[in-house]
Amino acid sequence: MSANLAAQQDSAVHGQVALAGVSKRFVTRGRGRGTELQALADVSFVVEPSEFVSLLGPSGCGKTTVLRMVAGLLRPDTGRVQVANRTVTRPGPDRAVVFQNAALLPWLDVQGNVAFGMRLLKWPSARIKEQTRHYISLVGLEGFEHHLPSELSGGMQQRVGLARALAVDPKILLMDEPFGALDEITRRQMQNELLRIWSAARKTSLFVTHSVDEAVMLSDRILIMGARPGRILVDLPVELPRPRDRDVEESVEFIALRREVWRWLDTRS
């Protein structure tokens, strides 16, 4: 294979996520012997570079398990999880995770939390300073650089978590119900912010949610998972124009897609 062809192929999968025939079991320990729980069964899908794809399904269907396997925090029992054509075996700087709880370090201010991952990676101090400033601005927290997490609202804490994840310049952004603990007003505000930030950064994004409206509003595609053992029921494209604002929620297309998503969720099969 020529160097040029290899470079083209590598570019074509830069930021791509691919799962093929993934299954996962857990053993729960109780009184007596353990009980085996089949969490996932034959899960296969691809997230293309710069796509925003949501995993949507009932509680306990394995959405977070899928995300944790892409992050390298869990390994499949069978099947393959790949990022950029390389099998995932451990966490890496090419993937960043935003959790439902922002998990900020309470003794560090906003600036320190955003810079934390870059310092772990031993980036040059000048680049850390530049990236920290850029992403604090991107998430709209200028003026709060020296505030501690305890001095921030829940939505502001999630912005810090998002900035920290983006600052290490990952290929893949993994989000596990990042707005699930927020009140509805703040949640909608954060969805608007994420739309704006994603449009600017265009990171490959895999987003776990149990909110139908959130999935339709944010995504390029929605992967609907069935009840345990989790599997992909359908891959629905979201053919709504970008950039999106709240007016799109009143469109015929949005309403029709939301109805279609609920039809699949109601099957629970």
Describe this structure in words.
The chain is of the alpha/beta class and 269 residues long. Helices cover 37% and strands 24% of the residues. It contains eight helices and ten strands. The protein has helices at residues 3-12, 63-71, 110-120, 125-138, 154-167, 184-201, 212-218, 252-267; strands spanning 17-28, 35-47, 52-56, 78-83, 86-87, 95-98, 172-176, 204-209, 221-225, 232-237. The strands form two sheets. Strands 6-7-8-3-9-10 form a six-stranded mixed beta sheet, sandwiched between helices. A hairpin with a 2-residue loop joins strand 4 (78-83) and strand 5 (86-87).
| Unreliable segments of 5+ consecutive residues | 1-11
Shape: globular
The computed structural class is alpha/beta
DSSP summary, beta strand count: 10
Q: What is the count of DSSP helices, taking H or I runs of 4+ residues?
A: 8
Largest sheet: 6 strands, mixed
How much helix is in the residues? Answer: 25-40%
Arithmetic mean of pLDDT: 89
H/E series? HEEEHEEEHHHEHEHEEH
Strand order of the largest sheet: 6-7-8-3-9-10
Query: Could you tell me the strand content as a percent range?
Result: 15-25%
Distance between the termini: 45 Å
Radius of gyration: 19 Å
